[in-house]
Amino acid sequence: VGVAESSVEQKGADSRTRILEAAIDVIAELGYRRASIAIFAKRAGLSAAGLMHHFPTKDALLEAVIAYRDAHDRAASLLSSQQGGSAGLRQVGDVMRRNDDRPALSRLFAVLVASNLAPGRPLYGYFRERLELLQDDLSGYVRAGQRDGEFRPDVDATQIGFELMAFLDGLEAQWLLDSSINLVAQSDTYLDRLIAYLSDVRPSEVEVPE
Amino acid sequence: MTAAGDATRDRILKTAATLFGTRGATQTGLADVAQQLGTTRQAILHHFPSKKKLVSAVLRRYCSDDLVAACTRLPADGGFAALFTLTGTARYVQRHPTAASLPLALLGENFSPDDDENAFFRSTYDQARTAVTALLDGSVAKGEIGPDVDTGSVAVAVVSVLKGTQLQWVIAPDSIDLVAAIERYVTRLGAELGVAASAQRPGARSG
């Protein structure tokens, strides 16, 4: 790829990013249903035709926004990290810190999940697979901690992965609903307690030598 | 209203609840509800003068049986073990999936203060947290939980996990046993908070 060509590619990628960022803001303010290609385009500083060059339909744009959000999480290592144990779990707090700065993304996700709850809905398969992937990742952190001897072996890592995933979803919902809920403080406190529990040597079960 | 009119009204509510529970109310028109019932949009408007009124009626009829709403009815003096009564709600929800999916779908359309039913959900979640906090404070008073536990933040976590577990079950009902998931969570939470096993479950296990 020549210099000129890659610069064209870069320009294309830049305007895609600009469109996606603009779309996230619009969706957060108006909701996806009320937003139109014309509104998305205007916010991104493009004509409708210019936007449709990148995303031919509103649905295509929607899917791209979701993939963009997931890339955002992946960049935060939630999906791709090799770190396990408490270091892995702590990254979940970092993701919440980023979400706290970007409520539009969290709201978009929460809104879209809620309108795709059943098979047959356009994004049901996507969200189901994503849920299962994240649960596996979180369980993997716990399992790695157990393998390294950091976490107690007598807890079900899969159960903790499901619980943590559920916690994050439920906490974000309450935070979106009620601004008095502190997303970062609540997730950090929860993680402190969870990590302490997982690291607990359980004094009551330690045998006292005679 | 006649008994026949009431029955029609109930049928409309039930059908609307099922449709709203899978794709939300925004994405469901009165025409969709009518079509499902083999009737007309006009016939529905006869019972509910607007879609807004229909959504509100569906919400008030069918959104008080899920795990979050059940928290609002938890007793403050039952000790930690009272949290296990949520498995009864989980059992109910497993038999009535709309009871779980409907509040989740409608919540997603009411996050903003200017959404029609925002106050309903804010109040439900607020009451749920308040009731769980009171239950945990009661458990502290009984000496089951240490006095240094921040019961308010544990209550936020409990309501969060219940809401999220319910979502997991709605999305993948074949991969989660909701009753077992709730029971395992409450058991684990009890261990985390240092509740003695004997205080966790006085009496026979409900089954």
List the helices and strands and how they pair.
The complex is a heterodimer of chains A (210) and B (207).
Chain A (H helix, E strand, L loop, with lengths): L2 H28 L6 H8 L3 H7 L3 H18 L9 H17 L1 H12 L9 H24 L9 H21 L5 H17 L11
Chain B lengths: L2 H21 L6 H8 L3 H7 L3 H12 L4 H5 L14 H10 L1 H11 L10 H24 L9 H21 L6 H15 L4 H4 L7
What is the gist of this entry?
The complex is a heterodimer of chains A (210) and B (207). With 210 residues, chain A is mainly α. Chain A has helices at 3-30, 37-44, 48-54, 58-75, 85-101, 103-114, 124-147, 157-177, 183-199.
Report on the structure:
The complex is a heterodimer of chains A (210) and B (207). Chain A starts with a helix and ends in an 11-residue tail after the last helix. Chain A has helices spanning 3-30, 37-44, 48-54, 58-75, 85-101, 103-114, 124-147, 157-177, 183-199. Chain A has 210 residues and is an all-alpha fold. In chain A, α1 (3-30) packs across α4 and α5 runs antiparallel to α7. Chain B is an all-alpha fold and 207 residues long. Chain B is built from eleven helices and no strands. The longest helix of chain B has 24 residues, at 118-141. The model of chain B is unreliable at 203-207 (pLDDT under 50).
Please give a handful of descriptors for the protein shown.
heterodimer, A: mainly alpha, disordered C terminus, B: 207 residues, mainly alpha, 11 helices, 67% helix
Shape of chain B: elongated
Quickly give the structural class of chain B: mainly alpha
Strand content of chain A: under 5%
Distance separating the two termini of chain A: 75 Å
Broad shape of chain A: elongated
Distance between the termini of chain B: 42 Å
Low-confidence stretches of chain A: 203-210
